[in-house]
Amino acid sequence: MRKFILSNIYSVFLNLVLFTVLMIGIQNNHERKSIDFLIFKTIDLPIGFIVGASFIFGSVSGNFYNAIIRISVKD
Asked: Could you list the pLDDT tens digit for every one of the 75 residues in the chain?
């Protein structure tokens, strides 16, 4: 468990910094869109937030997946 936490701490920190920059950067964005997912519809969000949040989520989940695979192979 300790290896998992240590291998992901840098990625989580970097993604938190990117998320903070994203929040600061979208303050004056007036173009908004909503996402339709099956029968659900989101509130209107800035396009930059949707793209940035998707990138950050993909980065975090990819890093966690990679860490799990690396730890599983070593055991």
From this structure: 677 777 788 888 988 999 998 888 888 777 888 888 888 888 888 888 888 989 999 998 998 888 888 877 766
φ, ψ at 47 (rounded to 5°) = -60, -40
**Beta bridge pairs of residue 40:** 37
Alpha-carbon distance of 67 to 49, in angstroms, equals: 27
Q: Which domain holds residue 37?
A: 2-74
CA distance 36 to 58: 19
Q: How many residues does the chain have?
A: 75
CA-based torsion, 56, 24, 36, 38: positive or negative: positive
pTM: 0.73
Cα torsion angle, 31, 52, 50, 53, sign: negative
Task: Report the domain count for the chain.
Answer: 1
